[in-house]
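=== Structure Prediction Worksheet ===
Name of assembly: unnamed complex
Input type: mixed (protein and possibly other molecules)
Chain count: two
Listed entries:
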Amino acid sequence: MADSGKKRLVEAITPMDEDFAKWYTDIVKKAELIDYSSVRGCMYIRPYGYAIWENIQRILDGMFKETGHENVYLPMLIPESLLNKEKEHVEGFAPEVAWVTMGGSEKLEERLCVRPTSETLFCELYSHIIHSYRDLPKLYNQWCSVVRWEKTTRPFLRTLEFLWQEGHTMHETAEEAKEETERMLNIYAEFCEKYLAIPVIKGRKTDKEKFAGAEATYSIEALMHDGKALQSGTSHYFGDGFARAFGIQFTGRDNTLQYPYQTSWGVTTRLIGAIIMVHGDDSGLVLPPKIAPTQLIIIPVAAHKPGVVDKAKELEARLKKEFRVKADYSDNSPGWKYAEYEMKGVPLRLEIGPRDIENNRCILVRRDNREKIEVSLDELEAKVRETLDDVQQSLFDKAKERRDNMTYTCTDLNTFIETAQNKPGFIKAMWCGDVECENKLKELAGVTSRNIPFEQEHLSDTCVCCGKPAKHMVYWGKAY
Amino acid sequence: MADSGKKRLVEAITPMDEDFAKWYTDIVKKAELIDYSSVRGCMYIRPYGYAIWENIQRILDGMFKETGHENVYLPMLIPESLLNKEKEHVEGFAPEVAWVTMGGSEKLEERLCVRPTSETLFCELYSHIIHSYRDLPKLYNQWCSVVRWEKTTRPFLRTLEFLWQEGHTMHETAEEAKEETERMLNIYAEFCEKYLAIPVIKGRKTDKEKFAGAEATYSIEALMHDGKALQSGTSHYFGDGFARAFGIQFTGRDNTLQYPYQTSWGVTTRLIGAIIMVHGDDSGLVLPPKIAPTQLIIIPVAAHKPGVVDKAKELEARLKKEFRVKADYSDNSPGWKYAEYEMKGVPLRLEIGPRDIENNRCILVRRDNREKIEVSLDELEAKVRETLDDVQQSLFDKAKERRDNMTYTCTDLNTFIETAQNKPGFIKAMWCGDVECENKLKELAGVTSRNIPFEQEHLSDTCVCCGKPAKHMVYWGKAY
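=== Predicted Assembly ===
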């Protein structure tokens, strides 16, 4: 019984090595993270998927507030004339926005786009409320959804509508704005590494890859199981470009009128895609304990035997005081349940049966490496705490080791092309700074620049593409 | 100095009795709850306004989860064909939706509306995931914004886009669905009374006033300072109408295919409008402590004198352990600060100056009745706790007393019309159940039925309008 139940679920997933894309979509569906909708390119985020997002929100929101940020809510519709105010920005976004042209049965005089991002609205608001240097900095953030009219979509990774947060800040000096840009990138990196157990590369995007209207874009880049990169968070420095376009001015300390300096930064539900593709395996999702909606699942074994369910409920009540715990008392077989919660990536499983009760013990089973641990009920909390911490750390270490093993150094063009074509992963290589070389590497090797990492290494003196003097070391790769 | 600062702010509000609508918009602007945007009918919710919404969300979300509900996220765009599936529903909403007709530069084959509410999407999702009675109940909720193309708008009360939560549940039996409808109405009523200090009337809407597509709509109705009613939350019972339209079927306990029974329920940012119009006064906002972003503001007096700021910071650190506290160390005068935090409705002000420090005391000033309380620093926490509780209760009592004083009983048509025209407030009167009488009372007296309260009273035997036998007692009034 147990085995047949297990097989039924496990067989349903395409193995990762057979078809990575199919493996991914199997997991998002079978772990009940999402369901497909009849709205093209949009998904239904189901309770289990949304609970992960709620944990992401709760933790990040706390980090934002600790650093002085406040939440606001701005309209989802942007008049075309407002979007048009900053030239580079509108050129970047206009081709991919959804346009509202009718209200009820009336044709609108001016069409409105569903926000693809809200720089323009924040600028309008800031133009109303920033008058003096005393009004600065303004450190606002918004949790909402945005729409971008993408051609091809994939759950969490690229959807027409997605959930995100967008921070938009205004500062008295360029220096302060640059510090903020970096501060938020560091918060994203800390969040990914500490909570999602995903190691990231922090760095600056090349001009070709930066955000429409930004002076500089910074990103954190993570490596997925299949060797493709995922941009997992971005932070932009705008200088005073938008402020000038929107006429935002303040009276400075020296009594002159000045333009403030601006940043924006965001992460999205993509992060859930990253969790799947960094930690998942052929049995399903593997969730880091710090972000898992359920950290431990209790499964009574031989539940019909006297005392088993009572004991399970007693342990549930004990553990709920400290951990996010669920118990499954349904009449499915234990094996069926094991497979179900493995699919859902619950970090720890607690098995308790008649013989365990006799011996005042239970069995803990780790989702990540399937290790079974016999634990005395007297030290249950301590052992669960310790094991969850260890799972969290192991997931990070394993992901980092894999990323490092999949990161290659290339110093000449032929090796670069050969590596890009045969070895999935990051390539570190020197670059002269010319967009022509970026275009050429894309064309010849199929990779794009991921970022110019803050932690530079001197791999050689010359650009891997053109042989001219190198300016930076760059991470290259195929990307989602 | 103090007085001139105070005047500057206070003079800026239109007194409530002079022009209630202007008083309201003055407060939302000057308490920095919102700012107007160039998007017609939409507003910018500023940090102070959004913090109130965050408190509402946090508390309600906790109440929803305690009663077994889970959060999800569904698309903001609904294909026209999906909206059209339930006839009454589309007739109710189609005239007031915003239509997306272009994606990028491409005209869409099928236009999409920005969700005005999400029954249709929830039904599509439920049709995919409900197969057996074991899958029921499904108790989902969503926090999001919706768009309704309103002609005239007012901040928080009626805007093109507004924030809300929408619960959508599916049940095995009609009985269970009806219980859910009532359970959620009770949660809304409890929330309004306990947290917002707003007394409400629970009851059923007449057929004329019910939600498009519902079998029954229940509401909670509150009375504003100007005697107008505000529908503050609704809960709908749908029967199996949508389930039939969307083909949602499950295998029942008896192995037959059945249609599930549905509810939906929601509250919106309107609640912030209710807080303003129930508790506010001519000095600005008055916030109930349980919902106030800042429960206590510390203002050092003669802050340049040695030791004052240090002492204020010491008290701030002490009080922050238990309360939502801020302190204002800016160089504005105390009087200016008093006016500012009165405008923002902070429930308690703590003043501390050199003489207070000498005497190991401080002064607490209540926002609601301006009472000054001298408090020994040794019992500060206890006194703050007690005073906040008392403010919370006083606000509710005062609002209830006012509502009761503004509620009139009418048993004949002439008195009804005269009362409606001259006495702002609720009218209780008997009704025969015919929509013709509802229409006539609207025409003659300018009021609509608010709801048929659960707590019925027998005021007379006959309908106040037509004199035929009465079926129900109804609350009538002018409404926002």
